Structures are given as C-alpha cells and as structure tokens.
C-alpha cells in the first residue's frame, strides 16, 4: 500500500489491504468540510507522472502514471480475478493516487519524503515490478499481462467522483459480510463510504480464522501501551466487548479492566479484522475472526464475485461507493 496508518503510527505493516486507504482517509479527513476548496477533476486527470518513495530503500522515483498503475494493480488484486473487478481496482488505484496528489498539492509530505505515494518494494506492497510479476505469474504471464494492461488502459482517463470531486476510494480484502461505515474508523460520515451488502465474502477462503491467546500473549502484546492491564484467573473476564458497529466490528472493548479501541486491539494482536468473537479455551481464549481488512469501501473479494456473476466495473463501483460515478476526460 502507499502510506502508513497515521492514526496508529507505531504499526508499520499491519495488513497490506489497509495501509494505503486508511492513511489517505485518516490523514485528510479533516479537509472534508463545506468550506474546503474542492479538488478539481480536471487537475486530477491531468497528472501523467507520479513520484514514488520506496520506504524499503529510501529512494524516490519519478514514474509514468501508466507504469505505476500497472505495478500497483498487480500488488493490490490477483490477476486471476475477472476483468471487470480488475478494472474497478485499477480505477481505485488511479483515484487514490490522484486524490492524494491533490490533497498535498503545494505542501510537504513528511511520511513519503515529499513523494506522491509510498511503497515497500521489499514486500511488494504498493507496487510490483514487471520482473517480479513474471516470477509470480509463471506460465500465466502472457494471459495476466493482457488482463492487467487492459484494466490499466480502461482506468487511465477516468476517475471515481462524488459530486464534482475525486473520492477517497477505500478498499479491503474481505468484509465481514457487509462493508463498514467510514465514520466507525475515521470519525467522519462520508456519504459514499457507507455500509453495503457483501454476502459473497462469507464464502471466501480465509473468511474465518481463529487465534488462540494465553494470558502471557495478551500481556506481552498490550502491556507496553496498557501497563495497568490485570488479567485474573477467569479467561471469560479477560476481554469484554463494549460496543460493535452495524457491520459487526468491535469498536470498543475492555481488556483486564482497561478500555481499548477495536482498531488498536486488532493492530497489537495482528488480527485480520476487528470482527471477532471471544470464547474461553483451556486457560486462555480463542478469537474467531471474520473477514480481512478494515472493511470500508470496496471488498476486493466481493468485487471478484460480482464480476464472476456478470456485473460490470460500473456496477461494482456503484455498489461499494454509494452515489459515486465514473467520469472520463
């Protein structure tokens, strides 16, 4: 992904699906006000190069937008997905890059050393080079190259907008069965980032995972940030959920008498999502986790399922970004 989670600065690589969009939305959410100057679609579409900052090497690279989108799309979505899903993801990558460039126009971006986008080449996060793609794809290289290039061609002269401005195109791997409202995690009610049905996700491989935790696991993970945590001899009382969102994500919980946000808890324990159930287990607890990612915006697995059922890119975008539309130059 492109940039770090600013609201949890001590987490560097929480989950690859979260980093770009969480950072973009959380860092710039304060700019979403009626009095803010609205970024123009014309300026966003006119940008034909991007500056990348590679956090793995500390180097900056100026790259043609088309070349960047090709590598970004490979990083973000499996090339085996349907063409309409790949188009939707390419559009999200294009819109995210354009929106971030506009938001920081004329200002410094300390997180990315002044670049438009931050990547992590050592982990293939945010961008995958053609050489690495060839190694990943093997015998499917020719087929996948054509699919990725076709999706990039489609997205090159387009943006996703709401009203007259480019959106913050959040995405994640697998939802909990419906997507999450942006206000749950980022504190602003963004009209196009509201909960949408994504029931297909519940059939995804890896939709449900389990994590077994001992007293020592919890104290080690949370102890530095919450040194007053006190876990008694009853595992059923170690972790108490205080509130959930409409999508089922844990928003607030108490751990050993200390109030912890769901997002922080997920980050510190490296959980795949904030949608989880807790049950006691032989002197410890088991967390049953559903979905993968923050859950806001487009579910990539859901987009893949919609494409497989015959939905177009436009239908996918409209489904996951309520009221948004695709515009061309």
Chain-wise SSE layout:
Elements: H1 19-28, H2 41-46, E1 49-54, E2 59-64, H3 65-76, H4 83-103, E3 117-119, H5 130-137, H6 141-155, E4 158-162, E5 165-166, E6 171-172, H7 182-186, E7 208-213, H8 215-222, E8 239-244, E9 250-255, E10 258-261, H9 262-269, E11 276-281, E12 284-290, E13 298-299, H10 300-308, H11 313-320, E14 325-328
Parallel strand pairs: 1-3, 6-13
Antiparallel strand pairs: 1-2, 4-5, 4-14, 7-12, 8-9, 9-10, 11-12
Percent of residues in helical segments?
25-40%
Question: How much is the radius of gyration in Å?
Answer: 20 Å
**Largest β sheet strand count, sense and barrel closure:** 3 strands, mixed
Describe the strand arrangement of the main beta sheet, using strand numbers. 2-1-3
Q: In percent terms, what proportion of residues is strand?
A: 15-25%
Instruction: Please tally the β strands and state the result.
Output: 14
Counting H and I runs of at least 4 residues, what is the number of helices?
A: 11
Low-confidence stretches: 1-17, 19-24, 29-37
Shape: globular
Helical/strand content category: alpha+beta
Roughly what is the average pLDDT, rounded to an integer?
86
In quaternary terms, these chains amount to single chain
How many distinct folded domains? Answer: 2
How far apart the termini lie comes to 26 Å
Order of helices and strands: HHEEHHEHHEEEHEHEEEHEEEHHE
